[in-house]
Amino acid sequence: MSQSRLSRLPKGISYWLGYRSEPPKPLNKYHVAAWSFIAAFGGLCVLQSIFNYSHYFKARHVPGIIASYGASAVLCFGAIESPLAQPRALIFGHFFSALTGLCITKLFSLIHDQAQFESVRWVAASLSTAIAIVVMQLTGTVHPPAGATALLPATNEEIWELSWYYLPIVLLSSSILVACATLFNNIQRRYPVFWISPPSPPKPAPPKPEAPPEEENTAEP
């Protein structure tokens, strides 16, 4: 969603989606630290309460939180201006990495001997994260914590047992974190800086044409 489109929305909506007609005033480091603490604590509490206290998710043995989202909180609440923390990178970086990790680990699980599969899961984990990095680079969705999201199907039995249900859980977790980030960060800061792609830098002003040199007066007095 571009800034020009956000500007067309009512101010009460565009403000909470990160639009500012003028750059916000910078906060001192103590205010930034305080808001980072409040936002991270609130966002992670919301995320964990949904999965820990919902009978729907508990019946499906969904963990209270996927560990990689702790690292995402550092970016989304503590480094909110970083391109790596923006919604596109957060949502699609985690999703593509989860998909990559599942596909690679399931390929390794085709080994009929369970003991042999267990002995090479570390290879699947390494390959999953390596491929996920490339996928994120090619799609412009690099989000460092998502490397762990790719790693988990091969290294964490609880995640592996979720199978393909891991994908909607990751997608929901990312969406909840983005919603919390837009709520808490926009109280006195600004998030996101962009939704889909970074704003284009302003075009430089065209150079002023040089004034023609004055003709010398060669006439004799």
Automatic annotation (TrEMBL):
A Pfam family that this protein carries is: TM_HPP
Keywords in UniProt for this one? Answer: Membrane, Transmembrane, Transmembrane helix
Transmembrane ranges? Answer: 32-53, 65-85, 91-110, 122-143, 163-184
Query: Composition bias, kind Pro residues: at what positions?
Result: 198-210
Q: Where is this region: Disordered?
A: 198-221
Q: Where's the HPP transmembrane region domain?
A: 29-192
Note whether Transmembrane helix occurs among the keywords: yes
Acidic residues composition bias: residue spans: 212-221
What protein is this chain from? HPP transmembrane region domain-containing protein
Taxonomic source organism? Penicillium chermesinum
High-level lineage: Eukaryota, Fungi, Dikarya, Ascomycota, Pezizomycotina
